Amino acid sequence: MKILFASSSFNGGGITSYAHEVISSFALVHEVCVMLGNDDKLPITTPGVKVYYYSMAVLTDSNLRAILKAINEDIRPDIIINSHAGAISLLAPYFNDNIKLVTVSHSLKYFEAELAGMNHKHVDKVIALSHYGKAYLQRRFGIGDEKIDVIYNFVRKHPDADRYLAGKRGNERLKIVFPGGCAPSKTPELALKVVRQLIKTDLQFDFYWLGGNMVHLSRYFKFLGLDKINELIDDDPRIHITGKIPREDAEEMISTANVFFFPSRREGCPMSLIEAMRVGAVCVVSDFNNANKEIIRDGIDGCVVNHRDVKACVDRFVDIIKNHEDYDKFYDASRERYNSLLSVETWQDKMNSAVIDAPMGHCKRKAAPGKLALHLAVLRYKLAAMVCRAWVTIEEDISTLLRFYRLK
After folding, report:
1. pTM of the predicted structure, to 2 decimals
2. Best CA proximity match to 117, nearest among 87, 99, 137
3. Is 159 exposed, middle or buried (0-12, 13-18, 19+ CB in 10 A)?
4. In angstroms, rounded to a whole number, what is the distance separating the alpha carbons of residues 384 and 353?
5. pLDDT tens for residues 76-103?
6. Closest by alpha carbon to 65, among 362, 360, 365, 373?
């Protein structure tokens, strides 16, 4: 089976991590090739995988036709897996009829989901990363239940998981890791509120704030007097704000966390949460309706906190620190949850069913588009992108900035 994996350029983050895992897994059994803008920062090193470099974000007539020709006439894959490749979503009506097209929705909503649902009548299968994501796609596009499969992300087992877990259990000073930086989608304002309350106590812990420390949009609203997250937290030796660090260092920090705090408001299916669970951790997520709440079952293999109730959230952290032995069960429970739900073996079984074994499900595709048809398709695409970006800006970016300002 010849599989073409199409994606945006590899610049880090969950989509890039997902791509590397998918490519290496399918390449064990199938002929895999990749089409993307560039992978200079995180190159594809899987043996035998051929890479075709076409920008998925350049929507000129010449680039789109070059991509279409390369796929239909040169590569001629049996299956295309579209992982956030805008040009592939736009060209879905024009691929050869014998090509099975699978799209992946990397977020609960907004443009990642828009790309997965775009031209869905010409798509054979849509993969949602949570049941909440599936429900959104059905509401937004009216896609039939049989065309959408829910397949959680995965990460491979950590070779030193036992050693990491043993080390955690011996910690007298708990290590708490929040990996969201200042990204509005990760609900950093809740993390800030928790930190500011925790440093008022004399409890012994280390809180690591991973990721960018520049308050989002602050450079455009300088009159608010906001800049870096450090300026909103009193100096305290228990708080460690790392700024952006290499992926390997972040993974090490996540793997050694006693408590993994991830209260994000819209997740496809977070790789970092799975990385924490695979070595065992007390995972604390918020009650937003997304994959986090599906994966972590409150009181069974982690904690789900009310994102509106800061006091209850802080009280939970205080209890974990003071009564760590009561939470020891979560180390094994979260690791078992990973093994049963989020392992590569589980993922491969479900992907084979959705991608390889599922029958064709698209309506008849068209011949190559005329100039006007392609121009109109590009305009619709750009309009959808503008609308989604506007909603993100209003719902997340600006609202989070204002929440930070109120805490200043």
Report:
1. 0.91
2. 137
3. exposed
4. 31
5. 999 999 999 999 999 999 999 999 999 9
6. 373
Measured over the CA atoms of residue 100, residue 106, residue 111 and residue 113, the dihedral's sign is positive
Joined together, the tokens standing for residue 318 give 């205080």
- Name the token pair of 332: 């094994």
Q: Which residue has the tokens 């800006």?
A: 393
- Whole-Å CA distances, 46 to 19, 235, 341: 11, 45, 25
**Sequence letter at residue 245:** I
Instruction: Give the span between the Cα atoms of 112 and 268, in whole angstroms.
Output: 9
Q: Which amino acid is present at 58? A: V
**Token pair for 347:** 């993922």
Please give the Cα distance from 294 to 309 (Å, whole number).
20
66 within 8 A of 87, measured Cβ to Cβ: no
pLDDT number for residue 18:
87
pLDDT tens sequence across 208-234: 999 999 999 999 999 999 999 999 999
Structure tokens at 326: 């009561």
The tokens describing 169, both together, are 């259990």
Going from the C-alpha of 206 to that of each of 174, 180, 253, 288, the distances in angstroms are: 6, 16, 12, 26
User: What are the structure tokens assigned to 257, written together?
Assistant: 């966390």
| Backbone CA torsion sign across 50, 57, 398, 387 | negative
3-state SS assignment for residue 264? coil
**Complete domains list, the chain, with CATH:** 2-154+344-369 (3.40.50.2000), 161-341 (3.40.50.2000)
Show Cβ contacts of residue 220 under 8 Å, excluding neighbours closer than 6 positions.
none
- Give the C-alpha separation, 244 to 345, whole Å: 32
Rounded Cα gap, residues 341 and 55, in angstroms = 34
Contact, 229 vs 241, CB < 8 A? yes
